Amino acid sequence: MKSHLEIVGTKEVQKKLQRLAIKYGVAYTTAIKDEAKELLEESKEQVPVLTGALKNSGRVFSERNDVIVAYGGVMMHEAGGEQDTSKYAIPQHERLDYNHPRGGKAKYLEDPFKKRVGTIVARVNAKIKEMNIV
């Protein structure tokens, strides 16, 4: 006994899957950027403050497939002038022996990240689900 199977519509299914993959990629990137922005805001509450320039230097940016939260660069400080924070952003973050009489602390980015990392996948998945891409 000979049997024959013909699948109709495979090109349409393939196109739909490709569109879905693109939508999912956009949704994933958007959700990760949202998480990064939330991390930045949480970390700004812990950044050491002298002039405010270091706090103002915090940013979220994309590089290739990475979303990065970083501090440092030339920024305006509270007195209205410019200040290059790139020379001290890392020491302020890493040096546990520095005093911060005007507020803030060392590990201002690392600590909020560690607090959030255990639940980031669930939050990203929830954000993607909210986007209703399927």
What does this protein structure show overall?
There is one protein chain. The chain is an alpha+beta fold. It has one domain. The protein is built from five helices and four strands, in the order ααββββααα. It has a two-stranded antiparallel sheet with strand order 1-2. Strands 3-4 form a two-stranded antiparallel ribbon. Strand 1 and strand 2 form a beta hairpin. Helix 1 packs across helix 5. The longest helix is centred in the first third of the chain and has 35 residues. The protein is elongated. It starts with 9 loop residues before the first helix and ends with a helix. The model has no long low-confidence stretch (mean pLDDT 89).
How helix-rich are the residues, as a percent range? 40-55%
| Inertia-based shape | elongated
Could you name the ranges where pLDDT drops below 50 across 5 or more consecutive residues? none
- What is the mean pLDDT? 89
Percent range for β-strand residues: 5-15%
- First CA to last CA: what distance? 41 Å
SSE arrangement:
Layout: H1 10-44, H2 53-56, E1 59-63, E2 66-70, E3 74-76, E4 82-84, H3 89-94, H4 110-117, H5 120-130
Antiparallel strand pairs: 1-2, 3-4
Helix pairs in contact: 1-5
